[in-house]
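Late entry, evening session. Most of the bench is empty. Finally got around to the prediction I had been postponing all week. Sequence below, unchanged from the version circulated by S.P.
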Amino acid sequence: MDVPQLLLVGLVLLLGVLGVLVPGVPGTLLVWAGVLWWAMHERTAPAWSLLVSATALLLVVQVVKWQLPPRRLRGVGVTRRMAVYAGTGALLGFVLVPVLGAVPGFMGGIYLCERHRLGTHGEAVTSLRAVMRAVGTSVLVELFACLLVMGAWLGVVVAGG
């Protein structure tokens, strides 16, 4: 696969990861479709292995999400700005501390958004707890899985090229 196509696959994966944070956007499906597109063009053992692994992981994540409590967005004041902060924090955390940094980055983004909005540390922490109870767990599980697939894809591309 040539460089422009790899960049397009990377863009689809990135849009999928960002789509996880937007209600109604099939972020997980976009991530899976990007890996499928890449694997269909590559046709190598590592590409097929990644596709199978990503499929299994993303299916398990859907089952886990279904088992988690339902989202109560309006009651805790989740905004688009908060989603942007949380997603940016998760992505930065994932890059700075590979894989494991996504969780504290996600929570740090929410805290930072609420600190700017509310002004005090105590109120921001209280709001962070409420958000994590309402939506954080299910979004975080899906976001973490999509970031893991994206990171694995990047690792295979770099190692193979």
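Two things to note before I forget:
The mean pLDDT is 87.
Helices lie at 3-19, 27-42, 45-67, 73-76, 80-96, 102-118, 121-160.
Will write this up properly tomorrow.
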